Amino acid sequence: MSRHFLAESSIELSGGDYGIVAVVAVVALAALVIGYFLLREVLAAGQGTEKMQEIAKAVQEGAAAYLNRQRKTLAIFGVIVFLLLFALPADDWNEAIGRSVFFLIGAIFSFSIGYLGMWLATRANVRVAAAARESGGREKAMRIAFRTGGVVGMFTVGLGLFGASVVVLVYTGQAPKVLEGFGFGAALIAMFMRVGGGIFTKAADVGADLVGKVEQNIPEDDPRNAATIADNVGDNVGDCAGMAADLFESYAVTLVAALILGSAAFSASGAGLVFPLIIPAIGVITAVIGIYITRARAGESGLTTINRSFYISAVISAVLSAIAAFVFLPDSFDGAEGNPAVIATVSVIIGIALAGVILWLTGYYTGTEHKPVKDVGKTSETGAATVILSGISVGFESAVFTALVVGAAVYGAYLLGGAVALFAVALAGTGLLTTVGVIVAMDTFGPVSDNAQGIAEMSGDLEEGEGVQILTELDAVGNTTKAITKGIAISTAVLAATALFGSYSDAIMRALADVNASLGEVGDSFVDRIIEPNTLVGVVIGAAVVFLFSGLAINAVSRAAGAVVYEVRRQFRDIPGIMEGTTRPEYGKVVDIVTRDSLRELATPGLLAVFAPIAVGFGLGTGALAGYLGGAIATGMLMAVFLANSGGAWDNAKKLVEDGHHGGKNSEAHAATVIGDTVGDPFKDTAGPAINPLLKVMNLVSLLIAPAVVQFTVGPDASVGVRLAISLVAVAVIVVAIVVSKRRGSVMTQTPAEQSTNA
Amino acid sequence: MSRHFLAESSIELSGGDYGIVAVVAVVALAALVIGYFLLREVLAAGQGTEKMQEIAKAVQEGAAAYLNRQRKTLAIFGVIVFLLLFALPADDWNEAIGRSVFFLIGAIFSFSIGYLGMWLATRANVRVAAAARESGGREKAMRIAFRTGGVVGMFTVGLGLFGASVVVLVYTGQAPKVLEGFGFGAALIAMFMRVGGGIFTKAADVGADLVGKVEQNIPEDDPRNAATIADNVGDNVGDCAGMAADLFESYAVTLVAALILGSAAFSASGAGLVFPLIIPAIGVITAVIGIYITRARAGESGLTTINRSFYISAVISAVLSAIAAFVFLPDSFDGAEGNPAVIATVSVIIGIALAGVILWLTGYYTGTEHKPVKDVGKTSETGAATVILSGISVGFESAVFTALVVGAAVYGAYLLGGAVALFAVALAGTGLLTTVGVIVAMDTFGPVSDNAQGIAEMSGDLEEGEGVQILTELDAVGNTTKAITKGIAISTAVLAATALFGSYSDAIMRALADVNASLGEVGDSFVDRIIEPNTLVGVVIGAAVVFLFSGLAINAVSRAAGAVVYEVRRQFRDIPGIMEGTTRPEYGKVVDIVTRDSLRELATPGLLAVFAPIAVGFGLGTGALAGYLGGAIATGMLMAVFLANSGGAWDNAKKLVEDGHHGGKNSEAHAATVIGDTVGDPFKDTAGPAINPLLKVMNLVSLLIAPAVVQFTVGPDASVGVRLAISLVAVAVIVVAIVVSKRRGSVMTQTPAEQSTNA
Questions:
Q1: CA A426, CA A424: separation in Å to the nearest integer?
Q2: Residue B558's beta-bridge partner residues?
Q3: What's the distance, CA B75 to chain centroid?
Q4: Is A33 exposed, middle or buried (0-12, 13-18, 19+ CB in 10 A)?
Q5: Contact B392 A675 (CB under 8 A)
Q6: Which residue of A678, B239, B425, B726 has the smallest Cβ count within 10 Å?
Q7: Which is nearest to A47 in space by CA: A452, A449, A444, A442?
Q8: How far apart are the first and last CA of chain A?
Q9: What transmembrane ranges does the database entry give (chains A, B) (predicted)?
C-alpha cells in the first residue's frame, strides 16, 4: 500500500466549500452565543449568605491574582516563541506570518478559556452552595454546576472551531502550515496552565492537609487553617482553568491534525479541509442538546444523569456524522482506493465509541461502586503500604487496558483507511471531539461542587443535613467525572499525536524531496533508520522524558507544599487566637506563596517539553526523533492513565472509608487511605493530566522543526557543526533548568531558609 | 551507510580459530575448577552453635523443597517448548535439533546455577554468622560472604562461556541459530526463577512484617513469628537463586547476541565467532583476580573494598581486551569500512565504562551516604505519604539518568561501528560481561549477610556487641550492592536486546529474501512500516506489556503475602505458647503455603512474556512486532530501574532512621519509612529485576518466530487465516491466564476462604 504525501499549497476551495466553512464558522459563533446565555443563567442564581459571599470573594481574588501573574510570565514566553517561529523554514512570508500570528491567537484562546473557566467557577461555587440550602436543592445545585460546565464547553468548542475555520477560509492551501502554529500556541499555553495550576492546587491541598489534618487534627476546609483559601483557589486554577485550557488544546490540536491530513487525502478538492470541520460542528449541536437535556431526576445518581446525556449526544453525533459523510464527501480519494464516505463514517464512529468505552473503563476503575476501588478500600485494613501497592496495581492495570483500547481504535482506523490510514486516525479523533462539549460540562462538575462544599464548610452556614449531603454526593460524582475527562483527554492526545506523528514523517519526506534527494534514497535512509540502534535510542529518550517530566512535576508539588507547611505552622505559632477561632489567619500570604512557587516551578518541565525534541532532532537526526515521539506517546499514554487512575482510586477509596466502611472516619484504615490519597494528589492532578499537552507540544515542535532538521542533515546546507550547536544549546537549556530546580532542594521538609540558601 | 545482513551458514573456522575456541572452552572449565576450590574453602569454615545450625538446616530444607518443586513445574514447561521449537522453520534438521537440544542445555544450566546459588548461600549464611562471633570476625565474615559470591560468579561465567564455545565448535556456520536456542533456554528459566523467587521472598517478607512488626509488635526475625523461616528461605530462593539464574541468562544472551552479529560482521572469516568469546574469557581471568584481591581492610567500609576490586578488574579487562583486539582481529570487515581492532577495543571499553558509571550512579541514588536517600529519610518527618512521593521521585530521576547513560553507550557504539553498528553494540555488551564475575560475587553479599543476621537473631547466640554490628554493616553494604547488580543486569538487557532487535530485523530481511521478494520491495515495505500507526500501536503494546507484567508481579506478592498473614495469625491464635516462646510455631506450614502460591503465581507473567510477541507478530505483522520490541525495551529499562532504585532508596532510608536519624527506631518517622520499605519490597525484589529476563525472552521469541511470521505474511504460503488463528490462540492463552489470576482475587486482605471460593 502506497502512501500520500502532503501536496504543497495546491488545494483550492470551491465556492460551495467556502460556503460550508462559513456556515461552520457561524455555528462556532452560535456556540459562543449559547455559552453566553448559559453564563447569564448561572450568574442569575442566588449567592447565599454574606459570609459565603465573603469567602467566595477571597477565592475569586486569589484565583484572579494567580492567573494574572501567570499571564505576564506566559506573555514573555509567548512573544519569544512568536519571534523564534520566524526562524523556521516557510514557503513564503504569508505562511510565516500566518503561522506566528495564529500561534499567538491559539495561545490567547487557550489562556482565555482557562481564565473564563476559573472566573466562572469561582462564581458558580457559591451559587451551588446557596442552591443546596434551598428546597429542591439537589436539582438546582446540579443544574447550576452542570450549566457552568456547559458555558466552558461551549466556549471551548466555539473558539476552537472558529479559529480553525477562519484559518481555512483565509489560507486554504497554506492552512495546514498555519494551523501548526495555531495548535502549537494552544498546546503550549495549555501545558503551562496544566502544570502551573496542577502544582498550585496540589501544593495548597497537600500543605493544608499536612498541617491541618495531620498535625493540628482539625477537619478539611476548617477556616482556622491559613491554607484553606489557597486550597480552594487551587481547585479553580488547577481543575478549572488548567483543565479547560487542556481540553481546548486537545480540541484544537486534533482538529489541526485532521485538517493537515485531510488536505493530503483530498489534495485536488477542498473536501479534506471542509469535512474535518463539519464533524465538530455537528458536535456543537449535539453538545447543546446534551447540556439542555441534563436534568437530575429524583432518586437517580448524578453519574447516571450525566452518563445518559453523554450517550444520547454520542448517538446523535454518530448519526449526523454518517449523513454528513455521505452528503459532503466525494466518491473517491485522489489516487487511492476506498469509499471516502464509508471510511469517514466508520472512523468517526470508532472515535465516538472510543469515548464511550473510556468513559466506562475509567468509571469502572475509579468509581466507588466497582471492584477495584472496593479492593483498595479493603487493603486499608492492613495499613498504608498495602493501600499504596493495591492502588498502584489498579493504576497499572487500568493503564494497560486503556492503552490497548486506544491502540485498537488507532489500529482499526488504520486498517480501514488503507492509503489514507492517518487521515482515518485523525477522523477518529474528530469523532472523539464531538463529545468534548459534554465532557467539559461533566468535568467542571467536580471542582465546582468541591468548592461549594468548601465554602459551605468554612462559612458554617450550611449545617449538617440535606444540604451537606447533596454537596457530598455531587463531590463524589465529580471525582469520577474528573477521572473520566482525563481518560478522554489522554485518548485525544494519542489519536492526535499519532496523526501528527504521521504528519511529521510526511514533513520529513517533503523536506527531503525539496533538497533533491531522490525518493529512492529517501526510502533507503528510512530502512536504515528503523532497524538501527539510533531509532531505539530515540525511543528510550522519548520514554525517559515522560518519566522525567512526571518526576519533576511531583517534586515541584512536594517543594511548594513544603513552603505552605512552614507558612501555616508559622501563622499558628506567631498569630495568637487562630486556634481558638478569634483571629482570622492571613489567607492571602499563603496564596501569594503558592502563586510564586507554582510559577517558578513550571519553568523546568515546560522548557524540557520544548527543548528535548530540538535536542534529539538536531543532535541525533530525524530517525531518532521519530523514535523519540513514538516512545513518548506510548509511555506517556500509559503513565498518564496510571497516574490519573491510581490517584482517582485512592481518592474514592478514602471516600468509601469515610462513608463508614472498614472502620469509618478516624479509624486506622482511614489514616491509611488518607496517606494513599495524599500520594495520589500530585499523581492525578499535576503529573498525570499534564502529560496530555506535553505529548502535543512535543509532536508539534517536531513537526515545526522537521524541515530545518532535514535542511541541516542532508542536502547542500548540511552542516554537522550547526546541527550539533543547536542541539547543544537545547541540551544546555534543559540542563540549566534542571540544575536550577535541583538547587531549590528536592524535599518538602526543607525550611524556607534552607531553600533560599540553596537557591 | 549500508547494512550487513546475516550470511547464511557460510562461515568456516580455520584450524587456528578452532584452537582459540578450544582454549576459551578450557578457560571456562578452569573457571569451574576455581569455583570448586572456592566452594571448598567456604564449606570448610566453622558452622557456629548447634542452635544456629538447626535454624540453618530448616532454611536449607525449605529452600531445597521450593526449588525441587519449581524444577518439576519448569521441566514440563521446558519439554513443551523443546517440542514447539521444532515447529519453527530451520535450514535443516541439524539446526533444528541443535536449537532444541541447546535450548534444554541453556535451561538446565540456568536452573543449575540458580540451584547452586541457593544451595551454597543456605550453607554460607550460618558460616558468616559463626565467623562474626570470632576474633577478627569482620574480615573473616566478609571473606566468606564474598567467596560465596565468587563461587556463583565462577560457575556463571564458566557455564555460560563453556556452553557458547561448544556450540561454536560443533556448529560453526549454524552456530547463531543454535545459540538462539541456548539463549532462549537460559532466559526463559531465569525469568521463571526471578518471578517465582521474587514472589516467594517478598510474600514471606511482607507477610512476616505485617503480622510480626505491625500487629504483634515483635522484632524482625523473631523466632515466635511463624513466617521467619519462610522469610529466610525467600532470601535464598529469590535473591540468590533468582539472581544467579538471571545473571547467567544475561551473560549467555549477551554472548549469543555478540556471536550472531559477529558472524554477520565477519562473514568470510571466523573472527566474528571467535572474538566475542575471547573477551569474556578475559573476563574470567580478571574476575579471578578481582575475587582474590578482595580483602577487607580495617577501618575501611565494605563498599570501598568491593568497589576497589571492581575498578581494578575493570581496568585489567580493558587493557587485555585491547591487546586481544589488535592480536586476533583481521585488518578489515567484509565489505565495510573501519578498523576492526579500534572499533572492537573502543566498544568493549564503552561497555566496561558503562558498568563503572552504573555502579556509581546506583550507589549515589541508593546509598545511605548520598543526598537522595538522605532526602527520603528527611521526608519521614512529615509522614508516610511524603516518604512514598520522594522515593518515587528518586526512582523516576535515577531511571532517567540511567536510561540516558545506557542510551549514550548504545549510541556511542553505534556511531563508532558504522556499518557494523549492531556488532559494536553487542561488543559493548561483552565488555560489560567481563565485570559479571565480580558483580555476582558482590551481589551474593546481600542475601548471605541478611540471612546470617537472621540466623544470629533467631538463635539468640549472638548477643549485642561487635558480632551484631559486623553483620549489620555487611547487610547495609549488601543493600547497595544488590541495587547495583540490578542496574548492571538491566543494562546488559538493553545492550543485548538492542543487538537482538537488530538480529530480528536481519532475520526478517533474510526471510523476506527467501520468499523471493526483491530487495527493493522489502525496502518499500519497511518505509511504510515506520511511519504508519501500525508500528506505533506495536510500541504502545510493548510498553503496555511491561506495565502489565509489573502490575501482575506486584499483585501476586500481595496475594501470596495475604495467605501468609492469615496463616501466621492462625498459628498465634490456635497454638498456645507461641507468644510466650514456650512452643515453636509451625515454620514448615508457612514455607509450604508460600511455595504453593509462588509457583501458581508465576504462570501468568510467564505466559504473557512468551505469548505476547507471538500475538503481536502473527496478528499485526513484523513492523508492529519491531515497534513492540522497541516500546518494551525503552519502557522496560525505565521501569526496571525505577522499581529497583525507589525500592533501594526506601530500604536504606529506613536504615538511616534506624541508625538514629529523624527520631530513630520506633518513632513516627520510623513507622513512615517502614511503610516506604514495604511498598518498595515487591518493587525492588519482584517486579523490577524480573523485567530484565522478560526483555530477553520477548526479544528471543521474536527472533525465533520471525521467519515463520514472514512466511505467513508474504510469499506463497501467506495466509491471513493461519496468521490470525495463531495470534488468536496466543491472545486466548494470555486472556485465560489473566482471568484465572484475577479470579484468585486481587487483594491481600482476602481470607483463604474467599480466595478458594473465587478460584
A1: 5
A2: none
A3: 20
A4: exposed
A5: no
A6: B726
A7: A452
A8: 57
A9: 20-39, 73-90, 102-123, 144-170, 182-200, 251-271, 277-298, 310-329, 341-366, 387-414, 420-441, 487-504, 536-557, 602-620, 626-645, 694-714, 720-740
Report the predicted TM-score, pTM, of the whole model to 2 decimal places: 0.90
Would the CB atoms of A551 and B526 count as touching at under 8 Å? no
Q: How big is chain A, counted in residues?
A: 759
Give the mean pLDDT of A295-308: 74
- The stretches of B294-420 forming alpha helices (DSSP H) are 302-328, 340-366, 371-379, 384-417
CB B212 within 8 A of CB B571: no
* DSSP calls for A310-337: HHHHHHHHHHHHHHHHHHHS-SSBTTB-
Q: Write the CB contacts of B527 (distance below 8 Å, at least 6 apart in sequence).
A: A522, A523, A526, A527
User: From A207, which residue of chain B is nearest by alpha-carbon distance?
Assistant: B382
**Angle between helical axes of B93-133 and B466-514 (0-180°, round to 10):** 170
Best of B512, B540, B661, B683 to substitute, by most chain A Cβ atoms within 10 angstroms, is: B540
pLDDT in tens, A654-668: 988 888 888 888 888
Mutate to test the interface with A, among B683, B749, B751, B755 (most CBs of A within 10 A): B749
> How far apart are the CA of A738 and the nearest CA of chain B, in angstroms?
11
Note whether B421 contacts A532, CB cutoff 8 Å: yes
Amino acid type, A499: A
CB atoms within 10 A of CB B716: 8
- Report chain B residues whose CB lies below 8 A from the CB of A565: 382
Nearest to B505 among A206, A531, A557 (CB): A531
CA triple B204-B205-B210, angle to 5 deg: 100
Residues 6 or more apart whose Cβ sits within 8 Å of residue B143: B131, B295, B296
Which of A119-133, A701-715, B521-535 has the least mean pLDDT? B521-535
Is some CB atom of chain A closer than 8 A to the CB atom of B409? no
Read off the pLDDT of residues A390-446 as tens digits, 9 standing for 90 and up. Answer: 999 999 999 999 999 999 998 898 888 777 788 888 899 999 888 888 888 877 777
Q: How far is B534 from chain A (nearest CA, A)?
A: 6
CB contact under 8 A, A630 and B749: no
pLDDT digits (tens, 9 = 90+) for B572-612: 888 888 888 788 888 888 888 888 888 888 888 889 999 99
Contacts across the A-B interface (CB distance below 8 Å):
314
Alpha helices by DSSP H, B515-602: 519-531, 533-574, 587-601
Q: Per residue in A167-179, pLDDT tens? A: 999 988 788 889 9
* Residue A526 touches partner B, C-beta closer than 8 Å: yes
**B384 interaction partners in chain A (CB closer than 8 Å):** 384, 675
Per-residue pLDDT tens over the stretch A489-542: 888 888 888 888 777 777 776 666 665 443 334 433 333 344 456 778 888 999
Amino acid identity of residue A342, one-letter, is V
**Chain B residues in contact with A211 (beta carbon < 8 A):** none
**Would you state the cell numbers that stand for residue B519, as one nine-digit string?**
530487495
Query: CA A126, CA A454: separation in Å to the nearest integer?
Result: 9
Positive or negative, the Cα torsion across A223, A226, A229, A230? negative
- H-assigned helices in B240-335: 243-265, 271-293, 302-328
Going by C-beta distance under 8 Å and a sequence separation of 6 or more, which residues neighbour residue B319? none
B630/A627 CB distance under 8 A: yes
Per-residue pLDDT at A244 exceeds 90: no
Subunit contact B529:A530, Cβ cutoff 8 A: yes
B18 in reach of chain A (CB within 8 A): no
DSSP, res A134: S
Give contacts of A506 with chain B, Cβ < 8 Å: 531
Specify whether the CB–CB gap between B545 and B632 falls below 8 A: yes
Q: Which residues pair with A336 in a beta bridge?
A: A333
Residue A223's pLDDT is 80
